[in-house]
Structures are given as C-alpha cells and as structure tokens.
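On clarity, I found the account of how folds are encoded harder to follow than it need be. Since the whole study asks how a given chain folds, the encoding of that fold should be made plain. For illustration, here is how one protein appears when written out as sequence plus structure tokens:

:::
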Amino acid sequence: MVEFRIDRRSGVATYLQIVQQTQQALRLGLLEPGDKLPTAREVVEATAINPNTVLKAYRELEREGLVEARRGLGTFVRKSLGSQPADSPLRGELSRWAARAHAAGLERDDVAALFSAVLEEQFTESAHVEHEEHAEHVSKGDPA
C-alpha cells in the first residue's frame, strides 16, 4: 500500500501531492490494477491533513481514469502508468548516481534541479531530433 508524504513547504497543493505520488507509484509499478488505496481516514491519520483534501485527490485520480471508488469498499486502482518496474536496472543506476551526488555535498533540491534540467534537456533534444527526422522523411516523400 502506498504511503503519502506531504511536504508543506513545497508550494504544491496538498491534493496535488497525493495525485502526483499516486501517479508515480503507478509508473513505478508500486501500485497495480486492483490494488486498494488507503482510505481517506488512514491518510488523514498518517498525514494530519483535511479529509476533503484526500477526497479531492481521489476524485481527480478517478477523473483521470486511474482509480475507481467502490461504495463501501474503498478506492481501487484501475490502470497502470508504468513501463518500467520499480526494480528496473535504470532505477539502480539512478540510485547510485543520487548517492554520489549526495556524497558530493549536493542537497536534495540541488539534485532535483540538476536532474530536472538534464531531463528537460534530453527530452526536449530527443523530441527536436525526432521532429527533424520526420520532416526530412516527409520532404523526401517517405511515408515515415
């Protein structure tokens, strides 16, 4: 079962933190279709947030088609977002990199900023390259 961690200093709305953490758990394969999310009461007891905040997050996840509420039973995962399991070799590599960054004296926010910058760079660059390759094929009359 997923345990939500609320960062009151993050500037991100509490309900969005729950939504994002659920999405992350789905991407990592930590939550799978059929799994039950903690009840609003359990989340409130663990995090000391308003029950309406939890319900708002669950409604958003339901609106996205990721979970479904079953009256009297709870809220259950409908579909996964993940393509890489939590124990993927990539996770191990990233974990070792994060440990080196921490050992080098970087703070959590520094590591997050560095990772985000590289992520943006890599995905923007690859999208740009794919777009150029597609344009080149189209200009040559290739169907690709």
Q: What stands out?
A: The chain has a mean pLDDT of 86. The radius of gyration is 19 Å. The CA atoms of residues 98 and 111 lie 7 Å apart. Residues 108-139 form the longest helix (32 residues).
